[in-house]
Structure formats: structure tokens, C-alpha cells
Design brief:
about 210 residues; mainly alpha; ABC transporter transmembrane region fold; 9 helices; elongated
């Protein structure tokens, strides 16, 4: 039960954060569209990457056709090269978008802090506020901008591989899926512990920064 509450609280917090900062993210729609295009290209190439090896195993090993082996080797190199380019552009564009949104969020937080009363600043821990402006905003960028598209990409890669596995050998695909519930439960358990430790670390960092300040 505590894990469910933790998961629900995390989902609710993430939803509120997106609702609050979506206008800033939405202003970057064209760069995000370019990053999404590069991400989709990377996903397609990653799914296609094992296919030349399939031809090597199914055709070349039995027949000894060196020309097909050469074509498969060139295909592997070409697909890997194009996928690396697509991932490079995806990461660069996401970094630019994330830093742009990060600067705007920090400006908003700074203006908000300037508008707070002197009584608040006299009672608040200065070091803790610094950590919130510096570290917490970085984590917010990672959660809202930098991590979301790679997460979507990973899900699409898994779905694409699953479709291909079902197409090639549905029995082997079902055997592979048998471990999915165990993996999901283990991830939920570990994720709950990570969240608890991260909260403790965040409070300790704030206290340490306040002491240093």
C-alpha cells in the first residue's frame, strides 16, 4: 500500500509540474518536433539493426555466399552509422530545449523569490533556497524535458521488437514476455526505495547548503 501511495503521489506531482510548465515547453514545439523526428528515425533503425545478422545466420552460414555476407556487413555499418547520427541530433536538440526552458524557469523562480516578504527570507534557510534554484530546477528539467522523449523512445523500441518477435516466432516472444511481470514488480519495489532515499538526500543537501551559507 505505501508503494501505491508513493506512485500516485509521484504521478500527481509530475502532472502538476507539466500543467505549470507546459507553456514554456510548448513554446519549443518546433525543436521538439525535430527531436521527435530524429527519435523516431533512431527507433526504426534500431529495430532494423538485427536484420542483416538474421540473413547472415539463415543464408550465409549454410551457403557460404560471400557476396551476401559483404552486403550484410555493409548494411550493419550503414544502419549503425545512421542511427548514431539520429541519436546525436536528438540529444543535441533536447539539450538546447532543456537549457532554454531551464533558463526561463529559473528567471520565474528568481522573480518569485524577489517578490516574497522580508519576513519569509528571514525565516527561510538561504542555502536551501539556493539548492532549490540550482539543483531542483535541473532535476525538473530532466523530468519534464530531457527524459520524457527517450522514455517514449525506449517504450516504442520495446513494442517494435515485440511485434517483430511475434512475427518471427510467437512462441519465443511469449517465453520472453513471461519475465515481464517479475521485472515490473521488481522495478516498482526498487523505484519506491529510490524515491525514499532521494527525498532523504534532498533534505540533507538543503540542510548542508543552509549550514554552509
Amino acid at each position: 500500500m505505501p508503494r501505491k501511495r508513493g506512485l500516485g503521489a509521484s504521478t500527481s506531482s509530475l502532472r502538476r509540474a507539466y500543467g505549470r510548465f507546459w507553456p514554456l515547453i510548448g513554446n519549443q514545439k518546433w525543436p521538439l518536433a525535430g527531436s521527435l523526428g530524429a527519435l523516431l528515425a533512431s527507433i526504426i533503425l534500431r529495430v532494423l539493426e538485427p536484420w542483416p545478422l538474421k540473413f547472415v545466420i539463415d543464408e550465409v552460414i549454410g551457403s557460404g555466399d560471400t557476396s551476401l555476407l559483404l552486403i550484410s556487413a555493409i548494411a550493419v555499418v550503414a544502419i549503425s552509422f545512421m542511427r548514431a547520427i539520429a541519436e546525436y541530433f536528438n540529444k543535441v536538440i533536447l539539450s538546447v530545449v532543456g537549457n532554454t526552458v531551464l533558463a526561463k524557469v529559473r528567471n520565474q523562480i528568481y522573480r518569485h523569490l524577489q517578490g516574497l516578504s522580508l519576513r519569509y527570507h528571514s525565516e527561510a534557510r538561504g542555502g536551501d533556497l539556493v539548492v532549490r534554484v540550482i539543483s531542483d530546477v535541473n532535476m525538473l528539467r530532466d523530468a519534464l524535458v530531457t527524459a520524457i522523449l527517450p522514455l517514449v523512445g525506449s517504450v516504442l523500441v520495446v513494442l517494435g521488437m515485440l511485434i517483430f518477435m511475434l512475427f518471427m516466432d510467437w512462441r519465443l516472444a511469449l517465453i520472453s514476455l513471461a519475465a515481464l511481470p517479475v521485472f515490473w514488480l521488481a522495478s516498482m519495489r526498487i523505484g519506491s526505495k529510490i524515491q525514499e532515499v532521494a527525498n532523504i538526500q534532498r533534505r540533507r543537501e538543503g540542510a548542508m547548503a543552509a549550514t554552509a551559507s
